[in-house]
Each structure stands twice: as C-alpha cells, then as structure tokens.
Design brief:
The complex is a heterodimer of chains A (523) and B (133).
Chain A lengths: L42 H4 L3 E2 L2 E2 L4 H13 L4 E5 L2 H4 L23 H7 L9 E5 L4 H14 L9 E3 L4 H7 L6 H18 L3 E2 L1 E4 L1 H5 L4 H22 L3 H4 L3 E7 L3 H22 L5 H4 L3 E5 L11 H15 L4 E3 L12 H16 L14 H24 L2 H6 L2 H19 L26 H15 L2 H16 L5 H9 L4 H12 L9
Helix pairs in contact in A: 2-4, 5-20, 7-9, 9-11, 9-15, 11-13, 11-15, 13-14, 19-20, 19-21
Chain B lengths: L5 E5 L8 H12 L3 E4 L6 H11 L3 E6 L4 H14 L6 E6 L3 H9 L4 E3 L5 H11 L5
Parallel strand pairs in B: 1-2, 1-3, 3-4, 4-5
Classes of the chains: A alpha/beta (523), B alpha/beta (133).
C-alpha cells in the first residue's frame, strides 16, 4: 500500500503522527511519586524481574515434574495453571468435568492433589503464583495447609493469588457466584492476608484477560485500574485501614504487540494508581502508592501459521514489559496457538527472558526510554483516555454496576470485532496469516495423556473412602453457617481442606448459600 | 428472496473464552444471517435442543479448551437420535489437524482453525446451506 492510503494507528486504533517533538515531559526520577518512570530508583540493578512461566497440565504428579524441571533450568518462581474443572469449582469426577480434566492446566480436587503438586518444592523459598479466581479462597486454603505441613510459617510465604473475580465477569468468564457474593470472598482473603500473610499478594488485578478478550490498550488499563479501586473500596467498607492491605495489591498486564503503546500503558498505570491511592483513598504509606505488576506476552497475538515467528513476537513483547518496568514476566511459547507448551518450546521462551536480562543490556538502566518524545506523549494520552473511562464507570456507580449493565463487556466486544475486521480487510497485517503466507512443516506438540482424567478420578474415589467423612460434613456445615453470616470464611475453608473436603464439595456448599451467576450475553 | 440462513453459535464445555464466538456471531449477522448465540457452558443436550427449538440450518461450536473430542461426537450423536442430520455442524477453535480429520469423519461439515478468515467461514456456510448470495 502507498503511504498516502495507509492509516497509521497503534494496534488499539490510536492515530500516530509521523514524528514527535519536544514537549513538557518532566517526570520525577524512577522511585519517586507518581512512579511513572518505575517504582525503584535502581530498578533491575537492585532486583531482576522474576522469570515466572505459567505452567500446569494433566495430573499434579506430571505438573510437579515440570516445575522441578523449570526450577533446574533457572526459573525463579512458579506459576500454577489449573484445569477448567478446578477453575469452575468442580471435582475431576463431576459430570461436567468429562473431557476437560488436565487439559488446560493441572487438575486439583483436594488437599492431597495440592500436596503432590508442591512435593519437594520448599514453599518458604520459592514464590508461587496461582491463577485461580472463583474458587481462589479454597485453593489458597489448600496452599496454606501445604505450607503448614512443610513447617513453613505463613508469614514467610511469598506469592500471588490471582483472585480477581471482576475481570472474570468482564472478560474471562470463569465465574461461579454472583458478583457481590464473590466480592465478599475476595474481601475475606484480603482481610485474612493482611493479618496472616504479610508477604503474600492476595489479589492480582488483571488486565491480561481483558486484553485477550479483545480490548484496546486503554480499555485494559482503565478497566483494570477501576477493578482495583473496587477491591480497595470493598476492603475499606469491611473496616480495614488502607495502608494495612494496599501494599499487597498487585497487578497483571498483557504485553501486546504494539511496542510503544504497551510501554506507555505500564507507565500510565503506575501514575494513575499512585494518584488514586494517595488522593482518592488517602494512603500514607508509599508502598501503597506503588503499582507492582506481572506481565505476560499476548497469547492472542500468537499465530498457528508459521509458529516460529511467535518466538520473535514474544521477544519484542517481553522487551516492552521490561522497558515498562515489570516486576515479573511470563513469555509465551511458540506452540501455544496449538496446545500447552512442550518442554522444548517453554525452554526457548525462558531463554528469551534470559537473553533480555543478561545479554541485551536493557536491565542496566531504569526507564531507559524515558524522555522519548513519542513515548512521553503516548503515556500522557493513555493516562487521560483511561481516566475518562474511569470517570464514566464512577458515574455508573462503580465497576459492579457497570458489569451488571454490560458496559465493559460490550466495549470489549466492539473493539475486538473492529480489530478482526481490520485484519480481514488487510488494513492490519499479521505476518504469515494475511500476508507473507507460506507452508511450514508441522511442529511437535505436547500431548496430554487421556488417562489423566481416569487417574484423578480413581485417586479421588480412594480419598473419599479413606478420609473421616463425619469430620468433612461438620466442616462443611460450619462453612455454610459462616458464609450465611458475615464471618470471614477463610478459617472455615482451612478447616474444611484440612479434613480433605474436596474443592467440589466446598464450592457446592458455597453455591447453596450464594447462588450462581449466569450472564446476559451481548453479541 | 430466500429466507436468511439461521445459525446457532454455541459455546460448549466449561471454557469461558467467548471472543471468537462473539466475533463469528457478529460477522454472520453482518453477512445477513439470523444468528442465535447460546451463551456460555452449554451441554450437548442444551445445544441440540436449542437447535431444534430455533429451527436452525447450521450449528457453530466454538471450543478452545481441548475438550472437542468429548463434546463434538456427543452433539453429532444427539442430532442423529433426533433425526436432525440435515443440520450442518461447523467447529471453530483450537483443534489439531488429526482431530479435525476425525471430527469430519463423524459428520462435521468443517473445522475452522486459528487464522481462518471470516469471509471464508461465511462463504462456507452459504455453500453448505445452498443459499444463493
């Protein structure tokens, strides 16, 4: 196409000028409020980002082997992927779990599975992130119980529970209970964490899935930060003091393909959050002001065609996350448009991070792109566009009200359709898909053993006959009573998992009290 | 003028990733078809019942979780039981080549893998239902 006919926009559709010049872009130093340039003055010289590959498949036994492999290869933290039955609060032997056990992650139905998952992994030393939302409080109780068994004090535990239910209603749709009841469970974990696990992040407020669902960069930024504010407001309403829990709120963003737009997004996120925490919520502790985030390269950008190109895409996306000051990073594997990654593919993905960290030199300087006319302009524009969205959601009465009105869902669906039409018309190029096509030999993929489901079901049957079923029932009854009242459910969840009540049994008890949620679909 | 093609876009299984299903639903509607979207977490029974109630010519199943080998054969079986063999079933999502071949052998009309164009899907459905453009 000739230049005159082409439209120059970011991948999110923001118009881009041919060149940018000097402007009023004076930001405080890295480590200074509002942290646009990063939350640490010495940035990665002080501590490199955590290399944390999201991983889990088949049985906990097989996933445990993958974790030990990744740690041997120099990975510095773990990130657990659970399968769909676990994410939806069903045991492996539930009718709806058929065909899904172990497919998208590790199958966890009871404390026994969790014990196997972390066998030989010292939870006092390795930080663990867990991608679980609706049943997050239950899985966290299992994790805390495994730590007890290992003799690790809860106060020593480092890690993150995703536990971000709002983005489930908005984008990923793995919800069980209605929004307000779910928020109560999230607030229970924030409160419990503030008292018992000072080094653990009870929530990872996630834009990743919002972006994967097709949002623009600004929508990802705005909806995620507004979700964060919703959690803050729920915890304040519970009676917690802002500085007692805010330092442990963490974030999770997508690292998509538009290089500068992404870096601007991270910088704007820190700035907006710092101002909101200090001015909107009156936080006094500077740790409450600092937005810490994990980034994952964009799964939705990976192509099935010419899969080796995905290594290049991922490297560029990872570079944007590092230049944007991420605290932790997952790099996707080249085969993830097809399947969960093979060991070979995940090793290349991890090596990509190691090349960035140890060869490229980008980790030596804080905010190395600070002062770029283009980046500073994009940062300011992202900030104002996101603040406008946040204002609209405030006017609707907050994020839960906006979700109930279908607002973020509809905005995302419109954006994703617009993007797809741009790809379809050729206005947007995807190398190997709508231009530069060629045939490639097939790549070797990870095969999930179809027997994983049967093994999980057999293990569960043995557990149900071995355990003290009277104790299980008593613990579930106590949990129901706590859920019906206003008590924090965490101590009751801990009692139930210690009695080897299963995830499905516990979620069923909670479904009985809270009810379930079905969305009204908008197309 | 022929009546518009009626399509049921369905999202079976536990997976909630509905970006593809929604984009397809909108594209088919923009192409002049009547589209009914089931929403999430439909069992094969619910999908076939909806197809019967809505009298559709085409069922589009969106599956990204790897559960297609358990779900799709059950849908095909139910369609045969209810003598709805004339309803065309198309599958979209993350379906490896060998699974796609096996599903087609069971009567699935087409499997659209990642990167499939909207235009290609629309044209296939038009051709499969023998409706002039």
């Amino acid at each position: 196409m000739k230049t005159a006919e082409r439209q120059f926009t970011t991948i999110s559709g923001v118009p881009v000028e041919p060149v940018y010049g000097p402007g009023e872009y004076r930001n405080p130093e890295p480590g200074d409020f509002p942290y646009t340039r990063g939350i640490h003055r010495d940035m990665y010289r002080g501590k490199l980002w955590t290399m944390r590959q999201f991983s889990g498949f088949a049985t906990p036994e097989e996933t445990n082997r993958r974790y030990r492999y990744l740690l041997e290869q120099g990975q510095t933290g773990l990130s657990v992927a659970f399968d769909l039955p676990t994410l939806m609060g069903y045991d492996a032997d539930h009718a709806l779990s058929e065909g899904e056990v172990g497919k998208c992650g590790a199958s966890i139905s009871s404390l026994e599975d969790m014990e196997i998952l972390f066998r030989g992994i010292p939870l006092g030393e390795v930080s663990v992130s867990m991608t679980i939302n609706s049943p997050a409080a239950v899985i966290w109780a299992m994790y805390l119980a495994v730590a007890e068994q290992q003799g690790v004090e809860w106060s020593m535990l480092n890690g993150t529970l995703q536990n971000d239910i709002l983005k489930e209603y908005i984008a990923q749709k793995e919800y069980i209970f209605p929004p307000r009841e779910s928020m109560r469970l999230v607030t229970d974990t924030i409160e419990f964490g503030a008292r018992n696990t000072p080094k653990f992040n009870p929530v990872s407020i996630s834009g990743y899935h919002i972006r994967e669902a097709g949002s623009t960069a600004v929508q990802e930024l705005a909806f995620t930060l507004r979700d964060g504010m919703e959690y803050v407001e729920a915890a304040l309403e519970r009676g917690l003091a802002i500085d007692d829990f805010a330092p442990r709120l963490s974030f999770f963003f997508n690292a998509h393909s538009d290089f500068f737009e992404e870096i601007a997004k991270y910088r704007a996120a820190r700035k907006i959050w710092a101002h909101a925490m200090r001015e909107r919520y009156g936080a006094k502790n500077e740790r409450s002001w600092k937005l810490r985030f994990h980034a994952q390269t964009a799964g939705c950008s990976l192509t099935w065609q010419q899969p080796y190109n995905n290594v290049v895409r991922t490297a560029l996306q990872a570079l944007s996350a590092v230049l944007g000051g991420a605290q932790s990073l997952h790099t996707n594997s080249l085969d993830e448009a097809y399947a969960l990654p093979s060991e070979h593919a995940v090793t290349i993905a991890l090596r990509t991070q190691q090349v960035l960290a140890y060869e490229s030199g980008v980790a030596s300087v804080a905010d190395p792109l600070g002062g770029s006319y283009f980046l500073e302009r994009l940062t300011l524009d992202s900030e104002s566009a996101a603040n406008e969205y946040i204002g609209r959601i405030d006017a609707m009465g907050g994020m839960i009200a906006a979700i109930e009105a279908g607002f973020p869902q509809t905005e995302i669906a419109l954006a994703s359709y617009r993007y797809q039409c741009e790809v379809e018309s050729g206005q947007r190029t995807i190398v190997g898909v709508n231009r530069f096509q060629s045939d490639e030999p097939p790549i070797e993929l990870l095969q999930i053993d179809e027997g994983a489901g049967e093994r999980q079901i057999a293990k569960l049957a043995a557990l149900r006959s071995r355990r003290d079923n009277g104790r299980v029932q008593r613990s579930l009854d106590a949990l129901r009573r706590a859920a019906e009242a206003t008590e924090n459910t965490m101590p009751y969840l801990l009692d139930a998992v210690r009695a080897y009540a299963t995830l499905g049994e516990i979620c069923e008890a909670l479904r009985g009290v809270f009810g379930t949620y079905t969305e009204t679909s908008h197309i | 003028m022929k009546p518009p093609i009626r399509v049921l876009v369905a999202k079976p299984g536990l997976d909630g990733h509905d970006r593809g299903a929604k984009v397809i639903a909108r594209a088919l509607r923009d192409a002049g078809m009547e589209v009914i979207y089931t929403g999430l977490r439909q069992t094969p029974e619910m999908i076939v019942n909806a197809a019967l109630q809505e009298d559709v010519q085409v069922i589009g199943l969106s599956i990204l979780s790897g559960a297609h080998n358990a779900i799709v054969p059950r849908v095909m079986e139910l369609l045969r039981e209810k003598q709805m063999d004339d309803v065309k079933v198309v599958v979209g999502g993350i379906v490896p080549d060998q699974d796609a071949t096996a599903l087609k052998a069971q009567g699935v009309a087409a499997v659209f893998q990642p990167g499939a164009s909207l235009e290609g899907i629309v044209n296939f459905i038009r051709g499969a239902t023998n409706t002039a453009i």
